[in-house]
Design brief:
- The protein has a domain of about 100 residues: Recoverin, domain 1, CATH 1.10.238.10.
- About 60% of the residues lie in helices and about 0% in strands.
- The protein contains eight helices and no strands.
- Helix 3 packs antiparallel against helix 4 and helix 5 crosses helix 8.
- It binds calcium ion (2 copies).
- One of its GO terms (molecular function) is calcium ion binding.
Length: about 150
């Protein structure tokens, strides 16, 4: 009888320990970090400025990169911030903004923003691609932003 009683106590303690470990603190921390990464330009650009920039080019074929970079505030940011923006837009981390990434440029600023039209994408690429390799490098991007 005595042995049986001890076993029951042990089982209760084990169950208690399981409860403590069922919600490890690192789990919630990891979710927060992923969320921060997704909120691409928050903390760098002002939300209202980004909204104004997006509203200014909501109609198809109305995108003007000079106006956009100025309105969203990126044009007056530091070289490091501009480089950070480049890395966000370069979604596959290839070191270049290719045409398909350029087409979805606005969606880095707001997930619900429209894709650029083919006409806008080609004009944007032509404006930035000064070495003619068909993609935008980090220096070419910085020149576009500061144009
Ligand atoms: Ca890329
Ligand atoms: Ca280029």
């Amino acid at each position: 009888m005595e042995t049986h009683c001890k076993l029951r106590i042990y089982k209760r303690e084990a169950k208690g320990l399981g409860g403590i470990h069922s919600s490890p603190p690192w789990f919630s921390l990891a979710s927060t970090q992923r969320k921060d990464k997704k909120m691409a330009f928050s903390g760098v650009l002002n939300d209202a400025d980004v909204k104004a920039a997006l509203d200014g080019c909501s109609a198809a074929d109305s995108f003007d990169y000079k106006k956009f970079f100025q309105t969203c505030g990126l044009a007056s940011k530091s070289a490091d911030d501009v480089k950070g923006a480049f890395k966000i837009i370069d979604q596959d981390n290839s070191g270049f903004i290719e045409e398909d990434e350029l087409k979805l440029f606005l969606q880095n600023f707001s997930a619900g923003a429209r894709a650029l039209t083919d006409k806008e994408t080609k004009a944007f690429l032509a404006a930035g691609d000064s070495d003619g390799d068909g993609k935008i490098g980090v220096d070419e991007f910085a020149a576009l932003v500061k144009a």
